[in-house]
Amino acid sequence: MMATLALAPQAAVAAPVVAAGSTYSLYLDRDNSNEAFYALATFDGISELGAWEFLPITVSESETELGNGRSLISIQLRADRDLFPVADETGVYGIGTFGDGLDLLRSVFLYDARVSFLDSNSKLLTDSGNLVDEVGQAAPWDGFFPTADLVFESAALGGQGILGINFDFFVSERPAAVPEPAGVLLIGLGMMAMLAARRRRQH
Fold it and tell me: What's the pTM value of the predicted model, to 2 decimals?
């Protein structure tokens, strides 16, 4: 399902890594949903409002220059109630899913990529760890997380009161060492479609 996004003003921190005004896709799903949240957002530092099964979700992004040729690219999702309401349910997520990744203005190396799951006060509940080793093309980075046709899967997110998700991408002009793999699974979109079809038959 394509989410319809409405614009609301928000300040942004500019950094010359992602093309201002370019679009990117965002994918989010869970075990007990009837439909995934799929949104095409604009990277412009302006908050956009979508809905996932009647749950309003705000999508925004920012860039921060860290010095020494490094930058942080961040995409934030916020909701007014639990994004994963059923205890222990699995969450699925990706950036650039179905082919619209972040449009990078120059060649950069992704050295830290993590997803943080936050409570109503933006306090960290859990995170994915560094997923760079699972990204399809990180050195240099192609703007996808993990690829156009794969998504990440994290178990036992449900029932924790997760009202916020941050996708944080740390990039550098110079390559960095590759980290150890994190405990997050990759899953193909074909498999996701099969699981979604199975869920609909069960309802």
Answer: 0.82
What are 15-49's pLDDT values in tens digits?
579 999 999 999 999 999 999 999 999 999 999 99
Assess if residue 180 is contained within a domain. Answer: no
Residue identified by tokens 């996932």 is 52
Residue 181 CB: number of other CB atoms within 10 A?
12
Q: Alpha-carbon Rg of the chain, whole angstroms? A: 16
State the pLDDT confidence band at 175, using cuts at 50, 70 and 90: confident
Strand order of the β-sheet with 47-52 is 6-8, 47-52, 55-67, 70-79, 164-172, 109-118, 124-127
**Domain containing residue 99: CATH number:** 2.60.40
Calpha distance 63→119 (Å, rounded)? 23
Q: Which domain holds residue 117?
A: 22-172
